[in-house]
Every structure is written in C-alpha cells, then in structure tokens.
Design a protein that fits this description.
The chain is built from 9 helices and 12 strands. It has about 290 residues and is α/β, with parallel strands linked by helices. The chain folds into 2 domains: about 120 residues, D-Maltodextrin-Binding Protein, domain 2 (3-Layer(aba) Sandwich); about 110 residues, D-Maltodextrin-Binding Protein, domain 2 (3-Layer(aba) Sandwich), CATH 3.40.190.10. The strands form 2 sheets. Strands 1, 4, 5, 6, 7, 8, 9, 10, 11 and 12 form a 10-stranded mixed β-sheet that branches. Strands 2-3 form a two-stranded antiparallel ribbon. A hairpin with a 3-residue loop joins strand 2 and strand 3. This is Methanol oxidation protein. InterPro entries: Quinoprotein_dehydrogenase, Solute-binding_3/MltF_N.
C-alpha cells in the first residue's frame, strides 16, 4: 500500500518531536542531578579569589549563590595554571559526570567557556609601601612626575604578560621593572606574594598588579602600610577589564540561571567586592564611589 507523503512527513515530525522530548527529559534529569549542589571549579591557593579554606572573593560569591539556590556549595580544585578549564569545567571521564559546573571569575571575551554578563569591572593598580620615600605620591601622575634620578632607582615589580610591561615601556621605565612569573610551576605560589613578601620586605619599591590583588593584600599586610593607586587605561595600554562567570558551552539554561542570580543578588555581590576592597571602575575606567 502506498503511504501518502503528507503522512510520512507528519510521522517524521512526530518521531522527531518525541525524540526531542526524550532528550529534553534526559537533559532535565541530568541537570537535576547536577543541581544537588553548586559545584564550583576553583584554584586551591589563589587568594584573594579562592583557596581550600573558602576565604576568597569567589568563595564568598559561591556562598551567596548557594544560599539563593538552597544548595550546598562544593569545590573541585585544580591550580589555575595552563589547562585549568580543561582540567576542571571540561574534565569528564567516560561514563562519569563533570566534577564542577561553574568558574566564578573569568574575563569577558574568554572563549574557553560560555561567559555570562559581567558582574564587576576593575583595573590594575600601582602599589607602594608607605615610609619609604614615596609618601608624597597620591596618584599615578604623581609617580611619573618624580625626579628622574629617583625614578631610575626604583624597582617596580610586575607579573609577566600583563599590561604593566607595556606601561613601563611607554614611560621609559623598562629598566626599573622586576618581572615575576604569573604561572609559576610551584603550586604554593600565589599572586599576592608580590605584595605580601616581595614589596613588604623591601625587595621591590612598588608593584603593578590586578586591582583585586592590590586591594586585598593592602588590607591584609599590616606592616608596612600599602598604598593602592588605581591606574587608568591609556592609549596603547589597557588596564581595566570586565569580569564575569563561566559555564560550559551549550548549557544555555544554566547560564541564564547564573545571570538571573547576578541580577537578583547584585547588592550582595557588590558588598562582597567592597569588603575585599576591589577597586571598582565604570565602563570608561573611572573609579566608582
């Protein structure tokens, strides 16, 4: 018997619809399993952002989200060196589940994850220790206006592959730069050491670091007092960046849920950022009060 083409087309549509429904139910079931906890990918030794004791900014934000979702927060830790995303958010052995579902801090434009809307913008900062000849410096312009003979004697710490290198070159201060490895093979290394040990001990006279690092360790280091000067982007040197959260590509509903939390918990998020003294700036790089 010849089956009408319209019937065949309708049958294919219904079969496809049933298949899509089955896939949707399977995805929902998997999503339900995943949401028995807020599973966060983190670096275990990366203050001010995260650590095993859950003392970092991103740990606190995870707690905010966990409370809002009514879920416990769990962590999967891996040093934030090369291949961090591959070994955390995208790590899955055959027949096993992913160990974590969200990275709490990634720059906007980071293509290894599906990036949410940004939740803060910060900038690099120039940090110096008080009582060591730079107390009159109240801005980056003041720093650049120091007598040439004084500038040339300064040792300015910076991490490699950051805008600080371009800034020193632009202002003729390359010889004053003291480079440090951002991605050290030593898992005990953390970014704040540049301030907490090197600057505090007088091994360098100033440092240029990412704003959240500057704000946190300026608060944590009690002696000497550290002065933080947020830096404005200049032609050819960009210092300010928007930060977001990251989920796996293709997880649209989870990303939407995260973005809803970013909106509904905005005041709590801002309170955490200010508690950790993150230098916040607007889209033009101007400081937010």
């Amino acid at each position: 018997m010849m089956i009408p083409r319209r019937f065949v087309a309708t049958l294919r549509f219904l079969v496809g619809l049933a298949g899509a429904a089955a896939l949707s139910l399977a995805a929902s079931a998997q999503d339900g399993d995943a949401r028995r906890a807020l599973r966060v990918c983190q670096d275990p030794n990366n203050l001010p952002f995260s650590n095993l004791a859950a003392e970092g900014i991103e740990n606190r934000l995870a707690e905010v989200f966990g409370r809002a979702m009514g879920l416990p927060v769990t962590y999967y830790s891996f040093p934030a060196r090369m291949a961090f995303i591959r070994n955390t958010l995208r790590y899955k052995l055959p027949g096993e589940d992913y160990p974590c579902d969200i990275v709490m801090g990634v720059p906007v434009g980071f293509d290894q994850v599906s990036v949410t809307k940004p939740y803060y913008r910060s900038t690099y900062a120039l940090v110096y220790a008080q009582g060591r000849g730079l107390d009159a410096v109240k801005s980056v312009d003041d720093f650049l206006a120091l007598p040439p003979e004084q500038l040339k004697k300064l040792r300015i710490g910076l991490f490699d592959r950051t805008p600080a290198s371009a800034w020193l070159a632009k202002h003729g201060l390359v010889d004053q730069g003291v480079p440090y490895l951002m991605m050290s093979p030593d898992p005990a290394q953390y970014p704040g050491q540049l301030l907490e040990t090197e600057l505090a001990a007088g091994k360098i006279d100033a440092a240029i670091v990412w704003g959240p690092i500057a704000g946190f360790f300026a608060k944590r280091v009690k002696e000497p007092l550290l002065q933080v000067l947020p830096m404005r982007s200049e032609p050819g040197v960009r210092f300010d960046y928007a930060m977001a959260m990251g989920v796996r590509h293709g997880e649209r509903e989870w990303k939407q849920q995260v973005e809803q939390l970013l909106d509904s918990r905005r005041d709590e998020i801002q309170a955490v950022l200010r508690e950790y003294r993150v230098p916040l700036v607007d889209d033009a790089g101007a400081p937010l009060r």
